[in-house]
Amino acid sequence: MSSITLENIRKSYGRNTPPAIGNLNMEIGSAEFLCLLGPSGCGKTTTLRMIAGLEHPTEGRILVDGKPIVSVDEGIFTVPEKRNMGLVFQNYALWPHMTIRENVAFGLVLRKTPAPERNAVVDQVMTKLGIAQYASRYPAQLSGGQQQRVALARMLALNPSVILLDEPLSNLDAKLRLEMRSELKRIHAEAGSTIVFVTHDQWEAMTLATTIAVMSEGALQQVGTPDDIYERPANRFVAEFVGSLPINIIERSDAEPAPLCRWLDGLLAHFALAGAPVASAGIRPEAVRLSSLNDEDAKRCAAGQGTIVDVVPTGGSWIVELDIEGVQFFAITTDSPSKRTGDSIHFWVERQNLHLFDREKNRIAQ
């Protein structure tokens, strides 16, 4: 188990191009399961590859347990094989001419581990990952999920202090992805290794990580627990990126406000927030209630009214699309809606479910 520190990391691929990573500072705790989350091109894989030693930072330092393994100013660069880190690629990178057993043992062979010890380790990790029965097969004879387990077994056989995973589940179908998420959580619990996991899939990050680091355009947007990221987004980007159904964003305007803006102004006044420098507000669809207010609710909520455009069942819940005088608005309900397309319906929200942002799109504390 090792901690990792990134200090003022910058990565540029040329003078005339924006930096892929710009002044990144981050602490990854010992035995932490950290997910680097963000859209394609945000710099998360580049960050992982710099930790692994496959990329050289342009500036900055990387420390493991307080000792620098990379320091541009000091001319320090520890080669990848000396970092005691295991890396699993997105495309598995298995040797097609080797059997499964030979693939799993490959790193141990390079380390010149004695055969008896090597065989014992290989048997152990293959049994744990449920691939012992495929030992004599070749990668082409296995399914994608089985090949993923082989790649994990090859990495785990080396007993690394840090496990680096670059979107390892992206090539699997939904059922296998679910199985492999459970497998990764079990590996983390049993091995206690520090894990850095790159993904653009927010639900992978939410269900796997102890800590999530959200990135955009080479910059760190927020680091926190899954609950922090979802319930207290630091800015508009995080709020809009995280969530299977996009968050409802209401923009305020100095000009003649749209109906939804007028409702927001009334909402802010209701919650005594009218004087706050609010430029926009976000309301997650699952926080929107679709029913009439009783007297007690009315004291802590503010209601609006819209027309149902569509009702989409998703199995156990329903997505309700509303039209509020030409503005699209979404709600999610676990109760089967009694109203249908074209019907008018009331909606309301509670104060704690209102995310407020200033003109720089940063969160306003309430």
TrEMBL record:
Main location: membrane
Compartments where located: Cell inner membrane
PROSITE patterns (UniProt xref): ABC_TRANSPORTER_1, ABC_TRANSPORTER_2
Keywords: ATP-binding, Cell inner membrane, Cell membrane, Membrane, Nucleotide-binding, Translocase, Transport
InterPro entries in the record: AAA+_ATPase (IPR003593), ABC_transporter-like_ATP-bd (IPR003439), ABC_transporter-like_CS (IPR017871), ABC_transpr_MalK/UgpC-like (IPR047641), Mo/tungstate-bd_C_term_dom (IPR008995), NA-bd_OB-fold (IPR012340), P-loop_NTPase (IPR027417), Transp-assoc_OB_typ2 (IPR013611)
Keyword Transport: yes
Highest taxon, organism lineage: Bacteria
Membrane topology recorded in Swiss-Prot or TrEMBL: Peripheral membrane protein
Record GO terms (molecular function): ATP binding
Domain (ABC transporter): residue spans on this chain: 4-242
Pfam families with a match to the protein in the record: ABC_tran, TOBE_2
ATP-binding found in the keyword field: yes
Range of residues in the leader sequence: none
Family indicated by similarity: Belongs to the ABC transporter superfamily.
PANTHER family: MALTODEXTRIN IMPORT ATP-BINDING PROTEIN MSMX (PTHR43875), TREHALOSE IMPORT ATP-BINDING PROTEIN SUGC (PTHR43875:SF15)
Record's protein name: ABC transporter ATP-binding protein
Upper classification of the organism: Bacteria, Pseudomonadati, Pseudomonadota, Alphaproteobacteria, Hyphomicrobiales
